[in-house]
């Protein structure tokens, strides 16, 4: 009935262009907008087919006026959110109707105001007198005070002091409160307002709710007749459809035969371990010694690299804070030793390595297992040579065929039907004999060793060709960097192994000194009186106070060789990062074609990576990651990946990748207790073991869980101090676990933790 009205759909973009957004530019009260015809034509040219005015292009071009009326239609009376008025007459009628409505509303408002102005006249009943009586009238003249001051005192400094008012009664007047009967007026009348409200009552209503029931409806399918089926099957439409889709259907059927689309790859990662719950540690053997391990904690445990069944451990005291500060107050009740045991003779010590001080850490040489290097609590670095006792260690066997009678000295046949490693009858006689005592063949001199305990020892890979080229054997051995030690004094020392002649001279001098002093068997050693000549070749020391903390060295990769310098250069200047020093300017050496990257874990829960031992002056080639909340006690490279490292400290552990500078690739959340030790598995890349302060061993299997340990088992009642794995054979693997009570537990690892899945 309105041919001049055309429904129009305006999108949000068009509403923003022409300022006609609902509830902002146009509302239900002010629901129209006049848009210039030129702007609409320009929009048609600019936006072309995307313009909302395109369907009414002809109507807009034929419109005689300059502005078109666009009306907001919130109720969709004409089918869209807007409509346009395409004639001048309809536009004027619409605007006049709006003006008439506004005039009517104004007239109604004026009438309401007139009715409000007609009020009842006010008649005074005497209340103005009460108002005058209640009002405050000042009758007395005000008292004026004038306070003056001498001009020279203006701007003078003012000093305030605290003073007890009770000491000076003249400086203040106390006005205590008291009741005055003169002003006690009895109230005879009070104005009180009372308002009555309906009484409230809480009530509840329980409605009955019917129990829901399942309902179903039976229907009959609509079936075609035989004639209709024949017509449909012979139609051209069906033939075209089958011709168009039969290739796609054939491909889909082939894909379903080739692969299972519903196969869950994530669950299949650990399919080899599904259904296996036999994850446990079996107690295989335990070692302890009343003489050397009573009231002491085991600090380090190492398996012999080549001889099966030989394990070594070192013990130290549990010093108080005062004893840690002053090492001279060390108790002399125990001897500082490294003990070597055999799995086949748990009741008898195989070797006892004597040390000048308690050992914090030690390590077998990978190239020559007869050399053992250790770090002491006073910072000394000690070396042992057990080559003379190698045959004794290799002669240990699990079964004994003969037992020697001490009375007659002749062997007698002994039949051992069942051997238990805990109680081996064949070794009872032998256990009574004292084990061989091995003295250290080299020890660092006090001025050139660490100022604090040596916390880690690492052997560097040596070159076999160096032993066959030029010079005497003594010079060759001394010029090879084979040993690295670190300490909380923020220094890293590189050592060369003394030659055989030097080691023999050291031993002979030590024996002569002991004979000369005629020491009783129970008195302590006095190694500081000897002339110890073993000195480090290189000393790396950080001059930055942030790094002066405990350094737990993990990895130093030196694939090349160390050669003497052809020409001497000026010494390297000090920088804020690393300070280099050598024992003698005549023995300066140059590291060629080698990698000098290393990782350091410190006492302030930070992991420091250094990219170069010889950084250019003014440059800083290290990165520091503060992740752990306590001292880092373990920093170990994965046996399967050369660039993957595990760090453990406090209540967290983290896995790092060399070259990734934005942090660890995996870190744990804070645990309830503290992590005290940890080691990678030697047979499974995704498994590692962590010792806790409550005596538990957590087994982390990254294929099963990454947010919590897959299994845990209690081993001891005290703190776990060290963990060391060993692969005896393809079917037998051990885990050595030491605790704070001086007991070494040998655990047999179950087959589930030994054999990795095919895709691990």
Automatic annotation (TrEMBL):
Entry annotated with the keyword Lipid metabolism: no
Record-level GO BP terms = cilium movement involved in cell motility; inner dynein arm assembly
State the InterPro entries in the record: Dynein_IC (IPR050687), WD40/YVTN_repeat-like_dom_sf (IPR015943), WD40_repeat_dom_sf (IPR036322), WD40_rpt (IPR001680)
**Which chain positions lie within coiled-coil regions?**
84-118
Q: Which branch of life, at top level?
A: Eukaryota
GO CC list: inner dynein arm
Q: Which UniProt keywords apply?
A: Coiled coil, Cytoplasm, Repeat, WD repeat
The protein's GO terms of the molecular function aspect are: dynein heavy chain binding; dynein light chain binding
- Name the major location: cytoplasm
| Subcellular localization, as worded in the UniProt entry | Cytoplasm
UniProt cross-references to SMART domains, sorted A to Z: WD40
**Cited SUPFAM superfamilies:** WD40 repeat-like
Region of interest (Disordered), residue spans: 511-530
Name of the protein: WDR63 protein
